[in-house]
Amino acid sequence: MGLFDRFRRKPRPGVLRTASNQDTSHLEQWTKSRHGVEAYVEPKTTVTETTVVLVAHDGEWTRRRVASPDAARAFARKQGMPIYDAGIVGYPKRMRDYTARKKASGDL
């Protein structure tokens, strides 16, 4: 333990972390480096803030926090991608298949 470790900001239990510029930047970079990307908004829960899952054409996916469902829709509109409510339509089969392939190969 370092001399100043106790002064570093640590997440407090019971406090939800909100979306940051790093989250948005990750989503933008991820979208630019893949094609056929669709967005799926996940609602806020007692454990996490609103999140958006981006799914590429091959099923590869990423999840990050967003400020609100409206912010997720604005992001998708800016990127020119379709956006869906994950609670209503669910997730695409290609996403589940991608995760299954990764688990089978030992990458997850």
Walkthrough of the structure:
The chain has 108 residues and is α+β, with helices and mostly antiparallel strands. Helix content is 37%, strand content 17%. The protein has helices spanning 21-32, 69-79, 86-89, 93-105; strands spanning 38-42, 51-55, 61-65, 83-85. A four-stranded mixed sheet has the order 3-2-1-4. The radius of gyration is 16 Å and the shape is globular.
Keywords for this entry:
108 residues, alpha+beta, 4 helices
Gyration radius, in Å: 16 Å
pLDDT < 50 stretches = none
Largest sheet: 4 strands, mixed
Order of helices and strands: HEEEHEHH
Structural class from helices and strands?
A: alpha+beta
Beta-sheet strand percentage? 15-25%
- Estimate percent helicity: 25-40%
Side-by-side strand order of the widest sheet: 3-2-1-4
Mean pLDDT: 88
Please give the number of β-strands. Answer: 4
Shape: globular
Ends apart, CA distance between termini: 31 Å
Given the structure, what is the number of helices? 4
